[in-house]
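Study both lines:
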Amino acid sequence: MAVTLEQHVRARLVTPEGRERGLAVVLRYSAEDPLAVQMVFPAEASLDGVEVTWIFARQLLEEGLSAPAGGGDVHIWPCGRARTVLEFHAYQGLALVQFDTMVLRRFLVRSYGVVPAGAEDESIDLDSGLSRLLGGV
């Protein structure tokens, strides 16, 4: 996947004891997958000691910046005016990560500069995607 937009940000992992640990996170957005955003967490943040990438709907990120949103594996909600919390569920457990809301908002605005809201369907290349899915047939 060709990355169209990549932004390195600082976040805070909330430990089970309620302490916060700083993390370097990479936010990604690609016009090739216009409905999704990616968050890449460093190996030291995972229980397995490997880099972890979460992929979820760009719309979910937008909704979660102003009100609780999400279901299943990813939940997002505002925490006061300056922070946004992302909760990731996996079979090993869950992780709570806090971001500065303005950083996420800025990334979202930049992603709309790549593919505007509502134009996601126009940038999806179904023929190419199907070809890759079917092994070049």
